[in-house]
Amino acid sequence: MTVSIDVSAEEKKITTHFARPQRLLIGGKWLDAASGETFPVHNPADGGVIAQVAAGAKADVDLAVRAARAAFDGPWSKMTPTQRGKLIWKLGDAIEAHLDELALIETIDNGKLLRMAKMIDVANSAEKMRYCAGWATKLSGDTIDVSLMGTWHSYTLREPVGVVGLVVPWNFPLMMAVTKLAPALAAGCTVILKPAEQTPLSAIRLGELIQELGFPDGVVNIVTGFGETAGAAIAEHPDVDKISFTGSTEVGKIILGAARGNLKRVTLELGGKSPVIVFPDADLPTAIMEAANNIFFNTGQSCAAGSRLFAHRDVFDEVVDGVARFAEKMKIGAGIEPDTDLGPLVSQEQLDRVTGYLQAGQRDGAQVVTGGARVDRAGYFVQPTVLTGTTADMSVRREEIFGPVLCAMSFKDDDLDQIAAEANETSYGLAAYLWTQNVSVAHKMARKLKAGSVRINGGGALDHAIPYGGYKQSGWGRENGREGVEEYTEVKTVMIKL
Ligand code: NAI
Ligand code: MG
Fold first, then answer.
1. Do 432 and 275 meet the contact criterion of CB atoms below 8 Å apart?
2. Is 492 exposed, middle or buried (0-12, 13-18, 19+ CB in 10 A)?
3. pLDDT one-digit tens code per residue, 154-211
4. Which of 106, 197, 236, 269 does the annotation list as catalytic?
5. Nearest to residue 431, comparing CAs of 488, 475, 483, 482?
6. Of 132, 197, 236, 303, which residue is the catalytic one?
7. Nearest CA-CA partner of 457 in 317, 331, 281
8. Buried b (16+ CB within 10 A) or exposed e, 410-440
């Protein structure tokens, strides 16, 4: 085991915790993969191996689905909404009680800044659990007056959809898992959670906390493993009623294909290429700082990243210079070091992907205002980058890079339709950010933008109460809010002639 950075006592505890091979949580038991295979997990700050984790695959998924089905038909559906809600709330408290430990796991596993892991990933995960705990007792159907002959009593029931597969990515490992787990449990579903192969450790630790709290066996099953094996087995499993996926658009489409077999319900939260639009009347210092945060936060590995900046030509130079200066001041380093502003990318694969885009952009003729290359040190580090002079056909401008790379463009006139058309010139439609003091412009633009989420004069943080999801190829369905919980339910209508 190699962890080269300042091995504090806490960090040592965690690496010791994960020193023995990590297993699968199935039906309340920790099991090796049926194949006996494991895979290594790396620390992105230095590439060292921090754990060996069970490589679950089809046979393990089959077992997990059986356990989830038994729990769904058995103890979980016999619990009252209050009892379910209490357990979910307790899990939120347990996450909060282990905040420092879970944050450190995220940093070692994903590379992200420790202070962000605490403040955002883990704190939000605790709150998300408690937000959803409340929904367990608040989901309900309607009574509906009908116009048929005779007298009818008609109502709807909101029932849990059943056994749900949760396939999550590596950019916010715990938070993405909880974003799906909390509403699924609140709605009364049982789950098979598959964390990303790059970052499975916080999900495993979450599984240990779940076991300690006394959830019935099989309510939460955790199958670590690769997408092409464990993930694919969940997506095509005939006894999984729904799959909720966050990740690439490419895999989202594969999952749709696999889900066809039993027409399982599908929620997809996919990528983005979200515009940040700065009008000349904006509060520029704030807009510049937030535009920079928006793309550099989590080293650009965020589906909500504002990766295309549109600034009015009167303020274009000032905005671009401001973001570039912000980038140049960022201290690049391991997430565990307290003064780091920009941590590594998650993996060698992502480093290759992002540097590939940087090279392609420069080959295609984009100008580098700042950054443009990887950082010459061990680990998966890349420079925060601002590009100008891109055209709509360039891959840097069209595709989700998922790194700290911003394409900046200027717009000339005040024709809102034209500005919106340029901002909408993408196959994605997850988020859009607007900076203007003019309320009329703000609300008109909000309606013209093809995005699931429009943010005006504020930073990018998400809230549990606000539905979030994509237009176009950014996905299907919504997470968070009432809509996010209802995604885990079916509506049944009942009619009785009186
Ligand atoms: P990915 O989409 O391959 O991985 C996400 C999850 O899907 C992981 O748990 C993975 O094991 C699983 N998966 C992969 N193939 C699967 C399959 N055939 N069936 C079922 N599950 C499968 O993403 P990857 O390769 O890690 O990253 C590639 C790009 O995807 C990134 O550069 C980024 O653009 C995008 N991405 C977007 C995310 C978002 O938050 N919307 C999160 C992660 C990646
Ligand atoms: Mg992939």
1. yes
2. exposed
3. 999 999 999 999 999 999 999 999 999 999 999 999 999 999 999 999 999 999 999 9
4. 269
5. 475
6. 303
7. 281
8. bbeeeebeebbebbbebebbbbbbbbbeeee
